[in-house]
Specification:
Distance between the termini: 39 Å
Order of helices and strands: HHHEHHEEH
Radius of gyration: 20 Å
Shape: elongated
Number of strands: 3
Length: 113
Amino acid sequence: MSELSEHNHDRLIEEVSGEMPDDDMLYDLAELFHIFGDSTRIKILYALFESEMCVCAIAQLLNMNQSAISHQLRILKQSKLVGCRREGKTIYYHLSDDHVKTIINQGMQHINE
């Protein structure tokens, strides 16, 4: 490699290195995408993208038992992708914020290209 291209290579590495998040942040990002890697969780997120729903409605919509849906909702809630509110004895789930909607929208746009 010539001295000039070696210098450019070193500068590129230095620039990119300065922009790289730390390992903990990259680990958290990988975990976030891991959560999106489960088709049941994606179905739940997409349902909640359309409307706030209770566990029984999600279970009926996805033709699954409430226990399985509750388990996945717990994971989504721990990951701060889903929030909830109580109305009497019923808990209604919703997407936690617009970031989740953006991720779903961009994912759908990407696969439809």
